[in-house]
Amino acid sequence: MPRTSLHPTLHAVTERIREKSRELRTAYLQQIAEIGGRQRGSDRMGCANVAHAVAGVPANDKLRIVAERAPNIGIVTAYNDMLSAHAPFRTYPEVLKDEARKLGATAQVAGGVPAMCDGVTQGTPGMELSLFSRDTIAMGTAVALTHDMFDAALMLGICDKIVPGLLIGALHFGHLPTVFVPAGPMPSGLSNSAKAKVREQAAQGLVGREGLMEAEMAAYHDQGTCTFYGTANSNQMLMEAMGLHVPGTAFIQPHDGLREHLTREAVRTVLGRTAADGYAVPPIGELVDERCIVNAMVALLATGGSTNHLIHWVAVARAAGILIDWDDFSQLSDVVPLLTRVYPNGTADVNGFQQAGGPGFVIHELMEAGLMHADVRTVRPGGLAEYAQIPQGADGGGLHWVPAWPSKDVDVARPAGNPFSATGGLKLLTGNLGRSVIKVSSVPDDRHVIEAPAQVFDSQAALQKAFAAGELERDVVCVVRWQGPQANGMPELHKLTPPLSVLQGKGFKVALVTDGRMSGASGKVPAAIHVSPEAAAGGPLAKVRDGDLIRLDAVAGTLAVLVPEDEWAQREAAVMSAEQRTADGRGLGRELFAGMRRNATTAEEGACTWL
């Protein structure tokens, strides 16, 4: 059918972003153009510099780099075998190097970046390093690429902070053509809904540690990303929508025979050696423009993706000289339909999503509805249209792509003309408690408005203790403060999901209000998160007291404490205690991140530590 013209709201939001970013974006593009206009590294650099750079590579590669002036690809890898999603990357560098040599090019592992698993650190002190690991990864990417010997780059990473960190780092080397290389999700194990039920039973003491461990091990059981649609898998959806992957690569499992073909195709892609041989892949800094960023935002909303990206993609855009905020997300959410139901927004996991049509189906539907910029440039010659397809093995080896539409399962992925919801999965909340966001796509309709007395907690541990003591058996809005970037690094508070779900399951009206984060796997309890400004910076959460009536209204888009205006204005704000600051800032490496806590911007500004 003929493609619908661009939706007026999409056009208006894009133009507003372009206008407010004009000065910053112009300076960014000028900078990368100047850097990109230099001679190749091995021609430009001193002989000793070049000798150091190639000392460890095989003789034939030295010849290619120095004498034959062949393209040299820098590989930045987030491999470690602590992360199931990243364990497959162990073998990737040799595969990439082999393919590069076949194409008359070379590749070097420029460097590695740290990659931590929030699933391991949830509820522990390590979680206080999680958000800032993103900027650490960005800096690690810069350290790797600053050897400045590369004509292109490949980024090996998948999970929560890793892809945003790699992308921020890559955009600071925006003159390089860059392709992101994923490894795919693990096979489905114990269903996510069954796992969540066992967690709730454990929170009530109905299941012991042995039973809980058995369930968790059955859910997380192999190499690949976790199968729920959290931050890691949202990353992959956004990479497809931005045209930074080999098309359709996101959710092919690590052990699938197609995976190595796709990995090799990443080399062909970044070198412009695909079917349309000779395509000059745009530098990533040019490719990631305002339209590309808006496409990513739309993809997030249409799939009910992770709330973490309301922080991460603000930082990503800023790295490309582009300014976005939560108003932009909110206005897009008003017109972008929810096209998927993937856990925690449904029962299917990402493997079920892929079988239904995956990212390709969503991208096709959004383009046809005029809700994506179909004219953007990508790392592929066919533009975004190539990303509306699914890869398959070709006869005799190799790859070919087939259309990802129509949906193979309308209970998981629906066309834009018949969505699960007419609006996106995220909502901006404003009021006298500040600005915050809520993931409404996973919250039952009858829980979109909650009005109840507040119970204030200074830590997630304090809330868990109160729950265990039976002190929360009532209608309650749990306010958890001192959880923002400047307070303690803004950890995810995913461990609060089971107890709050238990309370909601008993029929109580329950909500969470916090300046911290929830996991990309946020549950069905209404949660106003990322409250900004945060309490530690003098934000209004510091003025809330036990018993204050709080109204969270996801329909009207408001979050307010129902205290008389004059009383609220005169009320003194609490101050984070020295004991709490010490507890949240010392031990297990947290001292090393003190400077990041001091320098972090607000959540809505991306919690950046490098501005």
Describe the structure.
By secondary structure, the chain is α/β, with parallel strands linked by helices. The protein has three domains: about 10-40 and about 70-185 and about 220-405, no CATH class; about 190-220, no CATH class; about 425-605, IlvD/EDD C-terminal domain-like (Glucose Oxidase, domain 1, 3-Layer(bba) Sandwich), CATH 3.50.30. Helices cover about 40% and strands about 15% of the residues. It contains 24 helices and 14 strands. The chain has helices at about 10-35, 40-45, 45-55, 60-65, 90-100, 120, 130-145, 160-170, 190-205, 210-220, 230-240, 260-270, 285, 290-300, 310-320, 325-335, 350-355, 360-370, 460-470, 485-490, 495-505, 565-570, 580-585, 595-600, and strands at about 70-75, 105-110, 150-155, 180, 390-395, 400-405, 425-430, 435-440, 450-455, 475-480, 510-515, 525-530, 550-555, 560. The strands form three sheets. The chain has an eight-stranded mixed sheet with strand order 7-8-12-11-10-9-13-14. The chain has a four-stranded parallel sheet with strand order 2-1-3-4, with helices on both faces. Strands 5-6 form a two-stranded antiparallel ribbon. Strand 9 (about 450-455), helix 19 (about 460-470) and strand 10 (about 475-480) form a beta-alpha-beta unit. The mean pLDDT is about 95.
